[in-house]
Amino acid sequence: MSGSSRADGRTATQLRPMSASQGVLARADGAVRFGFGDALAICSVNGPMEAKLKEEQLDRATIEVQYRPATGVPGVRARVMEAAIRDIVEASVLANHHPRTLVQVTVQHLNEAGSAMATTLNAVAMALLNAGLPLRSMPATTTCAITADGELLIDPTAEEEAVAASIHTMAFVQEQHQLVYIESTGHYTEEQLAACHELCRAGADKVYAFYRVALEKKLAEEGFVVEAAA
Amino acid sequence: MTTSVSPYAFTAETFKRVQPEEYYRKILEQDVRPDGRAFDACRTTIVNAGCIGTAEGSAVVRIGDTTVVCGIKAEVAEPTLDQPQQGYFVPNVELGPLCSARFRPGPPGDLAQLVSERLRSLLYVGSSKVVVLEDLCIEPEQAVWVIYADLTCLNYDGNILDACVLALSAALKDTRIPRASLDVDEGIVRADEQATQPLTLRPFIFAATYGIYEGRLLLADPNASEEPLMASQVTVCLMEDGQLAALWKSGGGLCSMEQVQQCIAQARKRYTELASLVSSSSSN
Amino acid sequence: MAKIILPGEQVDVFTVDDTVDASLPVCLGPGLVQSETAVHAIQGGLLRSQETARHWWIESNKKRYVPAVGEPVIGQVTSRHAEEYRVDIGGAHTAVLPALAFEGATKKNRPNLKVGALVYARVSLADKDMEPELECVNPSTGRSDGYGELTDGFMVHCGLAHCLRLLRPNAAALTALGQHIPFEVAVGMNGRVWIRADTIDHTILGATMITRSEHVYGDMTTALTASTELDACRRLVKQLVQQL
């Protein structure tokens, strides 16, 4: 892997600094603003709450997803985002723990600056944790782009995405690094896909480590006595 | 059928309705699927290009009972400001109540929008554009061709994405657009209906979808009754040069990279099948 | 001992050293589930254990209440029926409070709660597939044990972890407040706290103290101990009293 630096001074394998503000919305059960550098999305989660009679499912919680882009009205791209968010929620939430209830997931993109899907899906995972819903796992997502020269760049900015030959977004759970979601478009070989998989997986591990640090910070602020991380 | 059947035993049809998951599991244990296919077998696929005379290009595709018609229309429009030398391409998928009771009339539902967006990303992201958009330019900054691809599902029996990609590829191959030029004095575009030319196409893209059953079995080309039982689905879009154009894994289930690679390997075999179907389907 | 744990991570509850009686059954509390052979976390938080008793649980904070049997809650009556009241306790479903589940209630002599009234009650039935049920009486003694309608006073909302903290004996926020004003308080585990003091001014002071004390930990610069916590709460009350 080449160590050449990018327009923003990062190396090819370096994520933008991650940020998270937890519990940002006072009225929501769980709300997190997550960001990779300038790319920011806010996700709120409500539930388990009362479901409308026609939405009720007898053996599991109903999941309602809404996505709004940073600018303009939600279009077809928003539908793809919603489908991906639903995949992440279905993969992580133990819906059978709360039958006949509703879990509402709402995402508002704040600033689209590349890696939009990964930013969104990580905000969703953190908001689910923040809401205290019973979870099977915490999926971590990263995006990687392949430039026209065949160089792999993790967590691409909007400018890098615009000129990329292909863009790959992958969501992993920690257990054996299984895949939850892949969206991989462009023009690429199978070997390049495997290389992206490696890079995204390493990135997802960093995102997961960030989840832990963020949770530790939140618990300390709430007055839980936290042991220094070993 | 026989008198020896206890009145409390289910017939296969009742069993399927009452316990679809258990029914499916029991059949899969016999290494076969309910419709008699092997795990890696796709349904019978038929491609018929050039069936709509009034369109610039068209194709009807059947994968099992899933039927999709694709019509291509070309219209003249002004180019966008940031791409003055490029035409554009607008795919639209319609899944109406005509093809299945699961769809409601009205504006396109989530699935239709999802498939439209997937087709669009196949044609726009990266360098894999199927249509060479620069060739759709009539006069830079003045006039370009807009290619509308309207896909209508006539019968829905699962795996709509594969059917749509196949119909689109076959219809694009069948498309001929008139030679056109801009009359600068009058400011109108003149098209010669007699002298038509085919679109300049990049390598063909074909899609193959695999359902992952209980995280272990790969089932090719799942139909409508199988789709809800698959926790995850992997769609592989391949090009003629053996490279990938897109790969999607959706659904809340988990899968490993090895399974994704198995899907790609199976999709390569499927690609050859589909390519020969399309090349033998068109009349020109 | 405690460590940060995220959902999906395994917890080794079965390995024990000599100090623990290995014949004791393992007891899993909130946030932990057993699947086949391993124990997994299903919530993020602090993994706590009482190893000698083999008790394991996860401590965390959330806002949405999920009813559990035996927990005290504060509910608001949303409708009255012939045999029961419907009470909103902040969970996914409204709870049922039978009209006879009060101290000394009979068919002839039953309490009269209006729609909108606040009640302090105990969850008597909680199952994910059924509506929760409440009671304002201890069924074994027939006494109210302090449960019943809450009149006057003021109710505030806070995080579930804060409620748990207020329920502890000698809770810092309540101890500090008690050094300035006399008050009555009812703490529900569903994120609701009711308070009534001698005057309305003092009730508002108390209510503000309860909400503000939830966030006192974020500003603390010293290590959190019982005495630093109490000092922080005392400073907060003093500040609020001065503002009054």
TrEMBL record, chain A:
It is found in: Nucleus. Residues 14-134, 138-199 form the Exoribonuclease phosphorolytic domain. One of its GO terms (biological process) is rRNA catabolic process. It comes from the Eukaryota. GO terms for cellular component: cytoplasmic exosome (RNase complex); nuclear exosome (RNase complex); nucleolus. GO terms for molecular function: RNA binding. Keywords: Exosome, Nucleus, rRNA processing. Its main location: nucleus. Belongs to the RNase PH family. This is Exosome component Rrp46. It comes from Syncephalis pseudoplumigaleata.
From TrEMBL, chain B:
GO terms for cellular component: cytoplasmic exosome (RNase complex); nuclear exosome (RNase complex); nucleolus. One of its GO terms (biological process) is exonucleolytic trimming to generate mature 3'-end of 5.8S rRNA from tricistronic rRNA transcript (SSU-rRNA, 5.8S rRNA, LSU-rRNA). SUPFAM superfamilies: Ribonuclease PH domain 2-like, Ribosomal protein S5 domain 2-like. Pfam families: RNase_PH, RNase_PH_C. Keywords: Cytoplasm, Exosome, Nucleus, RNA-binding, rRNA processing. GO terms for molecular function: mRNA 3'-UTR AU-rich region binding. Coiled coil: none annotated. Its main location: cytoplasm. The keyword Acetylation does not apply. InterPro entries: ExoRNase_PH_dom1, ExoRNase_PH_dom2, ExoRNase_PH_dom2_sf, Exosome_comp_Rrp42_subfam, PNPase/RNase_PH_dom_sf, Ribosomal_Su5_D2-typ_SF, Rrp43. Residues 42-178, 205-269 form the Exoribonuclease phosphorolytic domain. It comes from the Eukaryota. It is found in: Cytoplasm; Nucleus, Nucleolus. Belongs to the RNase PH family. This is Ribosomal RNA-processing protein 43.
UniProtKB/TrEMBL annotation, chain C:
Coiled coil: none annotated. The keyword Cell cycle does not apply. This is Ribosomal RNA-processing protein 40. InterPro entries: Exosome_RNA_bind1/RRP40/RRP4, KH_dom_type_1, KH_dom_type_1_sf, NA-bd_OB-fold, RRP40_KH-I, Rrp40_N_euk, Rrp40_S1. One of its GO terms (biological process) is poly(A)-dependent snoRNA 3'-end processing. Belongs to the RRP40 family. One of its GO terms (molecular function) is RNA binding. The keyword Metal-binding does not apply. Residues 26-64 form the Exosome complex exonuclease Rrp40 N-terminal domain. Transmembrane segments: none annotated.
